[in-house]
Amino acid sequence: MRRFFRRVIAAAVACGFGAGVLAPAGALAQPPRAVPIAKGLEHPWAVAFLPHGRFLVTERAGRMRIVEADGRIGAPVAGVPAVAAGGQGGLLDVITDSDFAANRTLYFCFSEPGAGGNSTALARARLSPDLSRLEDVKVIFSQKPKVASRLHFGCRIVEAPGGLLFLTLGDRFQRMRDAQKLDNHIGKIVRVTKDGAPAPGNPFAGRAGALPEIWSYGHRNSQGAALGPDGKLWMHEHGPQGGDEVNVALAGRNYGWPVITYGENYGGGRIGEGITAQAGMEQPVRYWVPSIAPSGMSFLTSDRYGPAFKGNLFVGSLKFGYLARMEFANGKIGREHKLLDNGERVRDVRQGPDGLLYVLTDMPQGSLLRLMPD
Fold it and tell me: Are 288 and 244 in contact (CB under 8 A)?
């Protein structure tokens, strides 16, 4: 009888039924469960974490709301400046200061109306003790020039060690050629102080004809950025039709748009020279064809989901409505897995103070979700 069962087990393994026992750790990881915290948010764009389990959520139409730990959605926070809401524009990213517990300071970016159209702006404010309003609101940086466009604002904020701020800036669609010029902020990542001044040591400081805030250039439209385990700034950006990219944004580097791309014009046809590589321009760490329309980005540093998830990169897909989990192998992005594959546009993903992942779905009745280990 024992020999019979050994033969049955051996046959099952040979047919693949027992392959999970020998699969690498990534294949053994169980997908987490999405637990709704709050529903009914209007096109939410970003989530930040507040003390006592509360959340701060932006809605693209120009509202900022407090979501209580039990999911209750508060009235709009007063004091948000006027935004150019429409198309892809509106109230976009928000982060809390690394010393928020002491200074109650936060940073947010939005499409700022003004002479000539609009552009991405970065503001600093203090959240009132009763959470009802923003105080001492000040725009500390505005993308130049302003453009009459409702597209490609970029607008992800990352605080780096030492208190400097990175801000991603889109190419505004019809101004894509300006992404290769250093006399403007179109299609750039900038690095500034918390007062909005060019950060000391920026790569183009002192260079004639170059704006001193610029960190890197040749970007299209980045809606995801995060510090990686290597301490470097990682970001992703939308390609045109195909060619979404993950990049490591290094000081002074040119990321090629629109000279090189793995995408093509909407409806077909090459862009520019139709090439994917050129000397002096960086290659992406990863690219997607077809496009997934990435938004939101987070590295998981906790062990809440087990060792297979720790260190993975998580990116939302607007186009296909899932959360991508990407493993690393030998320092490079390896296999990709789909989570939350329910068709809802994933706009933001963040690791919370509790080590769990939180997701926003960008829908007319959007949700804030907590991913619970299964």
Answer: yes
Residues 317, 38 contacting (CB under 8 angstroms): no
Burial class from Cβ neighbours inside 10 Å (0-12, 13-18, 19+) for residue 226 reads buried
List CB contacts of 92: < 8 A, sequence separation 6 or more.
Answer: 45, 46, 58, 60, 108, 109, 110, 111, 120, 153, 155
What sections of the chain are H helices per DSSP?
A: 2-14, 25-28, 100-103
Domains parsed from the chain with CATH numbers: 38-372 (2.120.10.30)
Segment 282-313, tens digit of pLDDT: 999 999 999 999 999 999 999 999 999 999 99
pLDDT bracket for residue 22 (50, 70, 90): very low
**Distance between CA atoms of residues 229 and 60, nearest Å:** 30
Which residues form the catalytic set?
Answer: 152
| Residue 20, Ramachandran bin (φ over 0: left; ψ between -120 and 50: alpha; else beta) | alpha
User: Phi/psi at 170 (nearest 5 deg)?
Assistant: -80, 170
- Alpha-carbon dihedral sign for residues 56, 57, 60, 61: negative
How far, in whole angstroms, is CA 249 from its chain's centroid? Answer: 13
| Tens digit of each residue's pLDDT (9 = 90 or more) over 198-238 | 999 999 999 999 999 999 999 999 999 999 999 999 999 99
Amino acid occupying residue 301 = T
- CA angle at residue 72 from 124 to 294, to 5 degrees? 55
